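ok so i was messing around last nite and threw this chain in just to see what happens. nothing serious, just curious
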Amino acid sequence: MNLIIIFLCLIPFLIGMPVSILAPVLPDSENERLTLVFTGDLMAHLEQLNAAKQGDGNYRFDSSFSKISSVLSGADLTIGNLETVIGNKKTGYSGYPQFLTPVSYLSALKSAGFDILTHANNHTFDGGSTGISRTVAALDSMGFLSTGSFSDSLAPKILFTEKNGFKLGILAAAYGINGSIPKKDAWRLNTLDTLRLGKILKEVQNMPDSLRPDFMIASLHWGDEYALTPNEKQKKLADWLFSEGIDVIVGSHPHVVQGFEQKRVEKNGDSVSFSVFYSLGNFISAQRTHPRSYGAVLSLTLEKNKNYRKARLADFSLLPIYVHLDPSKTDSRYVIWPAGYKSDSLISDKTVKAKVKDARKFILSQLSKPDSIFVR
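result:
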């Protein structure tokens, strides 16, 4: 039996398949599993709007996700950070610094495979309080789950959802906005105020066992823009959140990949391991300065034994991506290309292939333990 297990573990190396961090689960395992996919910032710069505009005045963004949609739709749940505000013909549409985006952008994200969109970032108030209400309403009408910004003061500040028997809690929060939040609207956005967040997380801890999430995720908009490494504030905040019940942190805002770290925190007398992915970089944007056209898609596998309620992170992998700009195209001008090991043989364009390889090399260089075992 031991020889069989060893052989199964060697198969990925022998045939060149992506390598999992953990040994494969045998068929008779009693563990339940859930796959989650996270992306970085979903931007909508003016250049993207211009490329998506059709002759009839409508906007189509679907082609941007055509090469990556199979990855997004293949997970049990796919989660992204919506870093724009939904506008309309009355408000007009614009890019940086005041993002206002057509609702068809959400349609493209839905078709691509997104299930949950967080909306806590420095651009959340770009359309004011009405922009938040309009965005939340659009997300609801499209069938997205969302959290981070709110149109109802009584809405829960954490998104609670259940999938395949796993109860998840997702807390989305941002360091702030570009400007100051009006006091009367402070409730509309979760910020990285530890006093407020502490109260929110305490309520989770006090929930009945039957309702309390199996796994808690924090989606944080934090850190320094374009910095390749996290700052000390991020590290301290991560430690505090882990001590308050968060299991995994997935970050955004720097627009570049900052890598990940596994931390051990003393909790109830035990040393417990947690993971923080400081920044996944951009998922889609018009930013071209190296390495802002590179990003990463994070895949988490959660595991829960049928005899125990609490879930754990069993496995993870990173898929590097590259946003290709083709000035000769119109609506397919900005396209996300997977940059994993399998991608090379599927790309005929030499320019794209070279960039895909460079993206993969960069992502590996950003890992705390640069090893291809983490990159699929």
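not much to say yet. Helices lie at 2-15, 46-52, 69-73, 104-112, 128-142, 194-205, 232-243, 350-365.
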